[in-house]
């Protein structure tokens, strides 16, 4: 049955994309567990951010070695995927190199895919060396242990294997194209600046064997891509997709501006209103949810913070620039993002297991994942926010959790309580009388 | 001090029916901290010398609420903010200058949503504008030829992207301005922000201010210039920790300019 291959291929595609679609649905559902925040304003600035930071990789190159290598892999990823279109058409309709009619343009395309594939292989190998031989500090930091650490290597191996399969597929094809008098359907098409040097390994093999190998490489390559696509959801690698929405929806205000809590504003205004009746019943507002100040779990964070968590690829630039982390404190902004994502995944699984409803599991992001010691070590210096190549803000999560600790639990460190008492009583963080504020004028 | 400082308050100005060109927000550190008071006075000496019409709130000023907000106490922050906004709006304040990047950031970025809309500038920007307008001449004087490095305060630099004004002023002093390995957007925090100033650090292997002081000492400066009273304290402590107080001084940019002219 000659259609067997095509049917098998179609099934592979449907299963691959089907699983992926269900993962995407879960991600969107989980992100929407967060509270709403308006990030639809100023679309011009948002598109610009996305173009510069995600597409243009402007923040990546701040660290030039990793930045340039990353651009190679990124370009390779995008451009080689054009080849995927041909592979899908060939697979579905039983054609072979269906775009070959483009002639010279096809030669240029295939030639550049090959060169990119080689560059990607080199770049990915350097990445592997940086992680495993040079052992850069941010890759061996204690906040990156267990699965996340292996995950990074798995992704590199995946990319190495996919690029190698692509080149082997071309090399075997080229070998058969060059059989004197032609062989089967292997017509002359494409240029092979890289795989021409691999092709000689097939010399001495029978044409039938090389054809079989060629088909094996072709199938493994496309199957590998589909598996990789589905691995994204379980790995740190979602940034290849989410970097785009993440930079679009990122905060546009100055980094120093921390968000204003509306719910607090209402109460403070009421408190300061001399005409307010302290014994009046609270006005009934049908839309008012019982407000909780700050965040103790992922549902208290906003959806952009949850999107941030899925986008983080654990590169560790934030942690390597964090003053607290550099001085041996437990705080790691990368861990804040990883914990948020892990907890969100846990909550998501809980919802899946309970027919769409979250059943409390006596766990929270605060304490079970992120400790107060980490939260109180932050200097709010914004180094992590500035460093992040895709505009994630670990600081905003730290602040929201501090708010919960202080306003819901009164659990600030003693010395901070003293500071706040001073501000409340005498308008300064220290115990000085407000009436003495201008004494400096006459002191020598 | 040769001459006494002229420091009118907003209340006095109002009584005379006057509105100053700019309101000088002194801040808690500038009002009460012994080291920071010297910065306040240096800045006032420059204002007096350049005949800038300014006024302070004096006893009507209160903490902006920055440390409370960053500690997580949004209630206390908003109470402080609304009280201050009431006072500022009653005086119809338009332009505010402050020598503290924390006050600067809070007044500039976090007061508008609560009803306080002002043109807020950091004292280094203000001094730069005085210089650009020809009202202030900056000369090297005693600092001529000295090696100076500038530490970017987080709430001036990264938080509000002001990197050049302080450097432009330092360069006018005829000094050698050297950059630390981490500066501007990559600058390392002094360790005081986020309310850390008011608490002990979490367990670790080093204090942040010591690490930052090491950055500064690496470029072998005569003076570490700062633009924030809290950074000033942290770096001064760092210098003491390294036992370098004999060789290296930590000075605010306002002090550099005022002292250069023996004001």
TrEMBL record, chain A:
One function term, GO molecular function aspect: 4 iron, 4 sulfur cluster binding
Listed InterPro entries: 4Fe4S_Fe-S-bd, 4Fe4S_Fe_S_CS, HdrC_iron-sulfur_subunit, Helical_ferredxn, NarG-like_sf
Gene3D superfamilies from the UniProt entry: Alpha-helical ferredoxin, Transmembrane di-heme cytochromes, Chain C
Transmembrane segments: 6-24, 68-89, 109-129, 154-172, 216-234
GO cellular component, one term: plasma membrane
Keywords tagged on the record: 4Fe-4S, Iron, Iron-sulfur, Membrane, Metal-binding, Oxidoreductase, Transmembrane, Transmembrane helix
Domain 4Fe-4S ferredoxin-type intervals: 303-334, 368-398
PROSITE patterns: 4FE4S_FER_1, 4FE4S_FER_2
UniProt keyword 4Fe-4S, yes or no: yes
UniProt name for this protein: Fe-S oxidoreductase-like protein
From TrEMBL, chain B:
Occurrences of domain Cysteine-rich (ranges): 22-108, 148-235
Family annotation (Pfam families): CCG
InterPro entries recorded: Cys_rich_dom, HdrC_iron-sulfur_subunit
A molecular function GO annotation: metal ion binding
Highest taxon, organism lineage: Bacteria
GO cellular component: plasma membrane
Statement: the UniProt record of this protein carries the keyword Iron-sulfur: yes
UniProt keywords, alphabetically: 4Fe-4S, Iron, Iron-sulfur, Metal-binding, Oxidoreductase
The protein's name in its UniProt record: Fe-S oxidoreductase
Species lineage: Bacteria, Pseudomonadati, Bacteroidota, Flavobacteriia, Flavobacteriales
């Amino acid at each position: 049955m000659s259609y067997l291959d095509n049917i098998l291929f179609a099934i592979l595609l449907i299963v691959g994309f089907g699983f992926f679609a269900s993962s995407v649905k879960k991600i969107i559902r989980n992100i929407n567990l967060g509270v709403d925040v308006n990030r639809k304003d100023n679309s011009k600035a948002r598109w610009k951010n996305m173009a510069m930071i995600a597409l243009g990789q402007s923040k990546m190159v701040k660290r030039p070695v990793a930045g340039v290598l990353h651009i190679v892999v990124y370009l390779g990823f995008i451009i080689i995927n054009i080849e995927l279109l041909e592979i899908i058409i060939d697979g579905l309709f039983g054609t072979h190199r269906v775009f070959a009619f483009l002639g010279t343009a096809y030669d240029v395309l295939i030639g550049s895919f090959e060169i990119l594939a080689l560059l990607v292989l080199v770049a990915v190998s350097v990445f592997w060396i940086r992680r495993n031989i040079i052992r850069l500090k941010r890759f061996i930091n204690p906040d990156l242990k267990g699965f996340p650490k292996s995950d990074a290597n798995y992704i590199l191996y995946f990319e190495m294997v996919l690029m190698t399969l692509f080149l082997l597929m071309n090399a075997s094809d080229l070998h058969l194209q060059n059989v004197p008098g032609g062989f089967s359907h292997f017509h002359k098409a494409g240029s092979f600046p890289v795989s021409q040097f691999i092709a000689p390994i097939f010399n001495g093999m029978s044409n039938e064997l090389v054809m079989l190998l060629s088909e094996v490489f072709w199938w493994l390559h496309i199957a590998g891509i589909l598996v990789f696509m589905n691995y994204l959801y379980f790995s740190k690698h979602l940034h290849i997709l989410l970097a785009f929405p993440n930079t679009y929806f990122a905060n546009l205000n100055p980094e120093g501006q921390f968000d204003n809590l509306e719910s607090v504003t209402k109460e403070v205004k009421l408190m300061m209103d001399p005409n307010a009746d302290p014994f009046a019943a609270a006005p009934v507002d049908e839309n008012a949810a019982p407000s909780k100040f700050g965040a103790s779990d992922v549902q208290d964070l906003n959806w952009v913070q949850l999107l941030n968590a899925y986008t983080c690829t654990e590169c560790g630039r934030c942690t390597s620039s964090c003053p607290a982390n550099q001085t041996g404190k437990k705080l790691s902004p990368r861990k804040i993002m990883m914990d948020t994502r892990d907890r969100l995944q846990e909550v998501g699984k809980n919802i899946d297991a309970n027919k769409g409803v979250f059943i409390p599991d006596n766990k929270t992001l605060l304490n079970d994942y992120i400790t107060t010691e980490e939260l109180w070590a932050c200097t709010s210096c914004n180094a992590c926010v500035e460093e992040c190549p895709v505009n994630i803000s670990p600081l905003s999560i730290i602040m929201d959790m501090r708010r919960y600790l202080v306003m819901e639990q009164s659990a600030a460190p003693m010395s901070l309580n003293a500071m706040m008492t001073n501000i409340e009583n005498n308008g300064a963080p220290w115990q000085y009388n407000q009436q003495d504020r201008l004494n400096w004028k006459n002191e020598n | 001090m040769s001459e006494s400082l002229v420091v009118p308050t907003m209340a006095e100005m109002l009584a005379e029916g006057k509105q100053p060109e700019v309101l000088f927000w002194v801040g808690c550190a500038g009002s009460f901290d012994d080291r920071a008071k010297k910065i306040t006075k240096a800045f006032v000496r420059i204002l007096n010398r350049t005949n800038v019409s300014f006024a302070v709130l004096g006893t009507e000023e209160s903490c902006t609420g920055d440390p409370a907000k960053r500690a997580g106490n949004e209630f206390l922050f908003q109470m402080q903010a609304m009280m201050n906004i009431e006072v500022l709006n009653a005086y119809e304040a338009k332009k505010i200058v402050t020598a503290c990047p924390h006050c600067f950031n809070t007044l500039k970025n976090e007061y508008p949503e609560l009803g306080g809309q002002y043109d807020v500038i950091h004292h280094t920007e203000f001094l730069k504008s005085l210089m650009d307008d020809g009202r202030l001449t900056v000369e090297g004087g005693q600092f001529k030829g000295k090696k100076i490095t500038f530490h970017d305060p987080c709430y001036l630099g990264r938080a509000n992207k002001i990197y050049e004004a302080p450097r432009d002023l330092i360069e006018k002093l005829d000094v050698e301005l050297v950059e630390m390995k981490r500066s501007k957007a990559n600058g390392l925090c002094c360790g005081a922000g986020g309310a850390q100033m008011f608490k002990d650090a979490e367990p670790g292997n080093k204090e942040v201010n010591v690490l930052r002081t090491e950055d500064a000492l690496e470029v072998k400066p005569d003076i570490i210039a700062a633009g924030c009273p809290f950074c000033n304290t942290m770096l001064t402590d760092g210098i003491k920790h390294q036992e370098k107080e004999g060789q290296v001084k930590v000075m605010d940019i306002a002090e550099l300019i005022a002292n250069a002219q023996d004001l």
